[in-house]
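## Example pair
The file below holds two records. Each record gives the amino-acid sequence first, followed by its structure token line.
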Amino acid sequence: MRGRLTCVALFLAIGCGGGGTLRGSVYSDAEARYRVGELGAEWEPIDLAQNDLAWRNPSVGAIVQVNATCDPFQDVPLTSLTNHLLIGFTQRELQSERLIPLDGREALRSHYVASLDGVPRELLFFVLKKDECTYDFALIAPLGRSFEAARPVFERFVGGFTTDAS
């Protein structure tokens, strides 16, 4: 199970993450500085290449991933950025998709059911563009109860996001 979840998280890796520091709830690296909400003690930080931040919750088999990619010349639609997060997943079924306000901008919230190596997963993505950076947040969990247990915690975590990390 752990290997599959790590594999899922690696597929979500986009951009140039890594090399940053997390102090309290503020992440900073050479590209970006931002604050995220709290996940809780049951979420263990994990180190995944190409991700700014990642955690796993062994009790529900879920992973949370956060990444920022900054490029002043990139102006890609939120739907295309979300589709990039789906690379490696098959049998993708969009459950819901809507624009929501996040840190003073529009973010695309997308809920999918998809498979990785034939194993079904529920995916919840938030993608936001702000100040020449793209921020993506992902929750990956087994279908049903595990996803439903992790979803509200993840949504509060994302709701705590701000680039005003002073």
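Second record, same layout:
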Amino acid sequence: MFTENERVLSSSSMDESVLDEKTRVERYDSQSWESLKTNPLYEDLVEFKDVFPETVPCELPKDKGIRHEVELKPGSKYCVMKQWPLPREQVLAIDKFFADRLAAGHVRESTSPHSSPTFCVRKATGGWWIVHAFNKLNAATVPAQTPIPRKDVIIDGMSKSTIFSSMDLMDGFRQILMRERDIPYTAVSTPSGMLWEWLVMPQGLSNAPATFNRCVSHLLRPVREFAPSYFDDVFIHSRAMDGKSDVEVHRYHVRQVLTIMRKHQLYANLKKCTFAASEIPLLGCIVGKNGVRPDTEKIKSITDWPVPVDVRGLRKILGLVAYLHKCSRNYAEMTVHLSRLLKKNERWLWNAECQRSFDGIKQSLIKSPVRSGQAISCGL
């Protein structure tokens, strides 16, 4: 649902130095059931091993109480885009994909007046991603107004916690049912002449991330005090209380979350999870018992960023910096000259003041201190 650059990745149980030094690939590779054997939650996790499958079970999911809805703007007509021809290798990949989806109960043959084309994108590891071009349907869809969880609220709620876990939920697209009357909108054509429609929420619909976020928030509402969620990420935090150690409380909290996930068929990617750690990556920051600091991977991507040559490039870097702007001293003052270049009809002129601002932002992030959760979150 989200790009890899948006992911917050981690390994099992890490201290601060390990989190700083490990790359994303290394974190992926190091996480396994074997590596978790020394983790205090190992036995609990093994008990809920079905929540961490290698692949999501290929079956029609349960009704989770939230279905994906498609509301078209008034006056919208049939959303139709013509299917274009594809190489035989891709046609065969698409046909196999839909044969598997049909067997799982995810799709059915369609007679819908709507139709969006299907195409392939090469995977970095080989093979094909099957993608639908829902451009016309998305343009005609009323945008969802589901509120996005606030990063500052999530961090503020963790400010007194001393032990943390995070879980990355898998394949949210096909884990939510479509509202029955909206199924015809999801009709997709294939190069071999078939027309299918989705019974589950497919990838590519404009409001799909909002629906998944709403569904996860709805299901985890009973535990949101210690397990807030942000789209497909769930963060669990605990501290010692009522005579119990922080590990004992955390074990109870994690088991509650896993019980809900098992009941409602929510699955997590083990390689992208952290369990019983003193700190976890969270939305561009590292949040732990000692406070909040910027994620070094995020900082490195900013400090390595080349000088922008146009408005588009400047927007990209400022968008990335905005994730961590409270870690940057005097952020508003430093971006005055850069923000000026974003104004409508402003002539692009990258001068010495812009360069000083650009360099100053990078340096302030490098030197940013560790702050308490309360200090950083309330300022966002």
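Notes on the second record: Residues 294-377 form one domain. The chain has a mean pLDDT of 87.
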